[in-house]
Amino acid sequence: MKIYTRTGDSGQTGLFGGERVSKADPRVEAYGTVDELNTLLGLVRAKLPAGALSDLLADVQGTLFEVGAELATARVEDPKLASRVPRVSASSVQVLEGWIDRLAADLPPLRGFVLPGGSEAGALFHVARAVCRRAERRVVALAERAAVNPEILRYLNRLGDLLFVAARWVNLAAGTAEAPWRAGPPTAEGGEPTP
Question: Residue 8 domain-assigned?
Fold first, then answer.
């Protein structure tokens, strides 16, 4: 199988089932952003200490492939072909909720907004959270034009929550303090307000 096919050279791509659409189509934007999130989670896994949340992220990456496959399927008339497309279910959302609850139980209460950052892994989790929210917005935009499994929206929404909690959790595990966001004028290095 060749990596290049030349079929996309004109700005079109094929959906599962054979339909050709523009690479700027909202459906392609949706599953493309989910793919971007998936690749970023691979980077997060590479930066985590051995064993720390790696199995969880591997499971999430697998589910994101299912999300992408489902989003890449506009219409499949052949029932045999349609049965090959995995569907995200409520149980996938429940798995995320279980992880959120477990990780949050280890964390101090959140008293306000925190600045994204901390350890390298914590900062990457925050970046992944922001990309996840963008993927969610792309899927919402698609859902306003076409039928989308509502469990995909629930999954991405809960995944954004999980990535935020995971960022806090790995920062705590690394001994990195969270930087609270404070409203007000910017300060100089010495902590004094700038003129």
Answer: no
DSSP 3-state assignment of 22? strand
Q: Among 105, 106, 109, which Cα is nearest to 172's?
A: 106
Cβ burial, residue 108 (10 Å; 0-12/13-18/19+):
exposed
C-alpha span between 30 and 33 (Å, rounded):
5
Report the relative pairing of strands 12-14 and 20-22 from DSSP bridges.
Answer: antiparallel
What is the number of other CB atoms lying within 10 angstroms of the CB of residue 14? 13
pLDDT digits 0-9 by tens, 133-185? 999 999 999 999 998 999 999 999 999 999 999 999 999 998 888 877 777 77
How many whole angstroms separate alpha carbon 18 and alpha carbon 20?
Answer: 6
Helix (H, G, I), strand (E, B) or coil at 26: helix
Percentages helix, strand, coil for the chain (3-state, rounded to 5) are: 55, 5, 40
11 lies in some domain:
no
Is the pLDDT score of 1 beyond 70?
A: no
In the structure encoding, which two tokens stand for residue 125, read together?
């989790």
Residue 70 within a domain: yes
Looking at residue 96, what DSSP letter applies?
H
27 in Cβ contact with 15 (< 8 Å): yes
CATH number at residue 94: 1.20.1200.10
- In this prediction the pTM is 0.84
Which structure tokens are listed for 100?
Answer: 């959120």
The stretch 68-89 carries a mean pLDDT of 75
> Which structural domain range is residue 124 located in?
22-107+117-173
